[in-house]
């Protein structure tokens, strides 16, 4: 399946720019608060940046089955059965797999970008200015070089309209950098505010495929996949999980 993307921002009305106020980002993990409330802020910020965002209508009850049948069916639909290559490639893999999870689940599933916290520390911590800048021109490798970074300071995951989180890449990233966690490679998790990983919290800041395509769409620094073959051949530029 060839994926087409690269939509232009939706023009904003002047009053939208004047009325939007960015919420403060948390300084501690325990201050993160309600995931759905943050996703509403993420949708408003996404629209403020000029991109289409989903209307958030929440389902009652959980959608994701404990036995993971939905994940196996999504893998079958996409033709991608080994998720170990998602290590450090959260944006690419979430963007590519999103329509397949949505197809299998039969409910809205959204690419979500933001911060990840673990054990009281911010692991990935973009701010609003970072995401606004990246949404305008894509992530710039020159910026990363100036900052002395090996990768990108953001995390991406999938949010289901039930409020549940699907984490596609984090455990594979851990497995790549920590020998003791190699058995986790290719594993995905799911759950509510912690994504099924104890002591972790997710803070959504943008939501929807349109802004994800803008952030990852710099032609000089492509971070998205048009086909499943691209999942393996595009450069590995994602941030790996820091080692203490």
What Rg do the Cα atoms give? 17 Å
Gap between N and C termini: 40 Å
Largest β sheet strand count, sense and barrel closure: 6 strands, antiparallel
Give the helix level as a range of percent: 25-40%
The helix count comes to 9
Mean pLDDT: 88
Give the topology string: H per helix, E per strand.
HHHHEEHHEEHEEHH
Content-based structural category? alpha+beta
Number of strands: 6
Quickly count the domains: 1
Low-confidence blocks of residues: 4-18, 236-244
Sequence-ordered SSE layout with sheet pairings:
Elements: H1 14-19, H2 35-48, H3 69-78, H4 90-105, E1 109-118, E2 121-124, H5 128-137, H6 141-147, E3 155-160, E4 165-167, H7 170-177, E5 189-191, E6 200-207, H8 209-215, H9 230-233
Antiparallel strand pairs: 1-2, 1-3, 1-6, 3-4, 4-5
Keywords summarizing the entry:
single chain, alpha+beta
Describe this structure in words.
The protein is an alpha+beta fold and 244 residues long. It has one domain (36-50, 68-233). It is 34% helix and 14% strand. The chain contains 9 helices and 6 strands. It has helices at residues 14-19, 35-48, 69-78, 90-105, 128-137, 141-147, 170-177, 209-215, 230-233, and strands spanning 109-118, 121-124, 155-160, 165-167, 189-191, 200-207. Strands 1, 2, 3, 4, 5 and 6 form a 6-stranded antiparallel sheet that branches. Helix 3 (69-78) packs across helix 4 (90-105) and helix 5 packs across helix 8 (209-215). The chain is globular and about 45 Å long. The model is unreliable at 4-18 and 236-244 (pLDDT under 50).
């Amino acid at each position: 399946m060839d994926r087409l993307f690269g939509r232009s921002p939706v023009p904003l009305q002047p009053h939208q720019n004047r009325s939007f106020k960015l919420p403060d980002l948390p300084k501690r993990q325990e201050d993160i608060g309600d995931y759905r409330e943050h996703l509403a802020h993420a949708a408003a910020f996404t629209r403020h940046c000029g991109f289409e965002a989903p209307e958030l209508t929440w389902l009652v009850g959980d959608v994701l089955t404990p036995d993971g049948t939905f994940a196996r069916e999504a893998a079958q639909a996409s033709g991608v059965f080994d998720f170990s290559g998602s290590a450090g490639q959260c944006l690419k893999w979430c963007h590519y797999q999103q329509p397949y999870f949505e197809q299998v689940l039969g409910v809205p599933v959204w690419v979500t970008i933001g911060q990840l916290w673990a054990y009281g520390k911010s692991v990935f911590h973009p701010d609003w200015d970072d995401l606004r800048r990246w949404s305008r021109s894509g992530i710039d490798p020159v910026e990363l070089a100036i900052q002395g970074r090996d990768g990108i300071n953001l995390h991406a995951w999938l949010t289901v309209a039930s409020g549940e989180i699907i984490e596609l890449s984090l455990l594979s990233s851990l497995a790549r950098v920590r020998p003791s966690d190699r058995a986790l490679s290719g594993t995905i998790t799911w759950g509510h505010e912690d994504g099924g990983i104890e002591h972790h919290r997710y803070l959504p800041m943008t939501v929807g495929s349109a802004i994800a395509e803008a952030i990852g769409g710099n032609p000089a620094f492509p971070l998205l996949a048009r086909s499943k073959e691209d999942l393996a051949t595009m450069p590995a530029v994602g941030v790996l999980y820091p080692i203490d």
